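Review box. Two proteins, two foldings.
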Amino acid sequence: MRRFDDPDGTILIYTPNEWQAFVAGARDGELNLAVLAADAEQARAS
């Protein structure tokens, strides 16, 4: 996986357990898109 804002950058690697935890959290509604958008905006500004 790569960052959408740096497609030629470092490849992000996750273990199967990390990926399963992410998917389970997203499925359970723990993924807060507003926080992710704010983080991305802050990263672009710096």
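Next protein.
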Amino acid sequence: MKLKTLLLIVVVAMAFAGCKYDWIVPEEIPVIDPDDPSQTVSFSEDILPIFTSGNNCTACHSGNQMPDLRAENAYTSLNSTRYIDKTTPENSRIYNVPRPDGSHYKKLTAAQAALLLAWIQKGAENN
């Protein structure tokens, strides 16, 4: 009887020791008011790193596939009505194609998508 009790305690202890909980921390999405001039979104500091680091869009978009998202060509390549729609920023291809819930191979995070949309809403300047 003591052996069964001991065995039961060991099995229960092993079951609880094997549990692992990963807490999901929600992504912090920046809130940027497009009409507030004090809130700036810089192409060189905020937008360009989305394409060139981490997400590494330049693996495909490096001159052979449009738009060319290499640092030296990204702004010129993007600044056309084909990729940026300043009248309806939500319709911009550079925002819609890699959006977090889209089907593109590389996806933006929600925070990256918010920055990109804010940049377009603020006029998509080369700053």
